[in-house]
Write a structure and sequence with these properties.
single chain; alpha/beta; Rossmann fold; 8-stranded mixed beta sheet; 8 helices; 11 strands; 19% strand; flat; binds adenosine-5'-triphosphate; binds magnesium ion
Length: 320
């Protein structure tokens, strides 16, 4: 086994030790793809015969895969001798292989061709569907096999966020990385970041800080909330027991496209205005459920009444 000394950003160090699941999520330009690309090349170099697959949810052409990035890493690390790039795959030392696949091209049957693979790396994993994730997990079953995911979060309900962040299985190592964790952040990218911060503050937190998409352009308070966060004005505040609490309520609708029901609890403390707000989506769901139960109950009562009336009518007719 040969070893390579590759400088790694501190934030990714927990991902260097073996783990069944490894995840890195965060905003643009945080070095997620470069880290996993290097780790893959390093692993293939150190362990002869490694079989690895780089996965995207959709991969119509190889240009949409991680192939170029990996080839760049092989060249940058001076490992051109042991690795041989082909049009659709890369041969690695000791008869190993790196291949590139789109999950959408796979069926429950065809995915079985990946069973012997030891490493599966899903980049742009925010687009991975729940179906793809559930097909992939039991397929990657070689001894010491690992699944790696790197992604820019969109919604809490996306399959990868649900699995690696909300449920987080034992044995999963997941790190959050952002632009400030990337020692190699190119100046052009940092310029882009600053431009977004100045011109589009409502998207900034999602694009650059790895937050879920929370605000929509034009949302009333998006700018003010982004500014409050930048200035460190969002945190935990205890209610002052001597001052009155006021509640401001924004009543959400019950339809699928309605806003969440929101309640702001506010105190005026000296010249500060302190607010605590909760989006009561769960509450809204239960209201919708209650509405649907009520609706069903009313229909049942009407239907039962109608049937009873018909039955009585028939009895009267027969009685005659
Ligand atoms: N290990 C590294 N060695 C050299 N350059 C690096 C390394 N890591 C990151 N960089 C530089 O930082 C840039 C951003 O890294 P990378 O593309 O890996 O980020 P990312 O988190 O995958 O971003 P995105 O969300 O845009 O996909 C790269 O284009 C590269 O210039
Ligand atoms: Mg990337």
């Amino acid at each position: 086994m040969s070893t390579l000394k590759i400088p790694t950003a501190k934030v990714f160090e927990p991902l260097l030790a073996p783990a069944r699941y490894k995840g890195a999520f965060g905003g643009r330009g945080s070095g997620k793809s470069h880290f996993f690309g290097e780790l893959l090349v390093e692993t293939c170099q150190a362990e002869r015969g490694t079989l690895a697959v780089c996965i995207r949810e959709a991969q119509r052409t190889l240009a949409q895969s991680s192939k170029r990035l990996i080839e760049g890493k092989i060249a940058a690390l001076g490992l051109g001798q042991g690795f041989r790039p082909f049009s659709d795959r890369i041969a690695t030392p000791g008869d190993g292989l790196i291949i590139f696949r789109g999950m959408q091209d796979h069926t429950a049957e065809s995915i079985k061709s990946l069973e012997g693979f030891r490493i599966a790396w899903i980049d742009e994993a925010q687009t991975l569907s729940a179906r793809s994730l559930s097909l992939l997990r039991p397929t990657i079953r070689a001894p010491r096999s690992e699944l790696w995911a790197s992604w820019n979060p969109r919604r809490k309900s996306d399959a990868v966020d649900d699995f690696l962040r909300s449920r987080k299985p034992d044995g999963a190592v997941v790190v959050k990385a952002n632009w400030r964790d990337n020692p190699w952040l190119p100046a052009v990218l940092d310029e882009e970041r600053r431009l977004d911060l100045a011109l589009y503050p409502d998207r900034y937190e999602h694009i650059w800080e790895g937050d879920y998409v929370r605000t929509f352009e034009g949302a009333y308070f998006a700018d003010l909330l982004a500014q409050a966060r930048r200035e460190g004005r969002i945190g935990k505040v205890a209610a002052d027991p001597l001052l009155p609490l006021r509640a401001f309520i924004d009543i959400g609708g019950a339809g699928a496209s309605a806003d969440a029901f929101t309640i702001w609890i506010v105190q005026w403390v000296g010249n500060e205005l302190r607010a605590d707000f909760q989006h009561l989506r769960r509450w809204r769901k239960s209201v919708e459920q209650a509405q649907s139960y009520t609706f069903k109950a009313v229909i049942t009562v009407i239907a039962t009444g109608l049937l009873g009336a018909i039955w009585l009518g028939i009895k009267v007719m027969l009685g005659r």
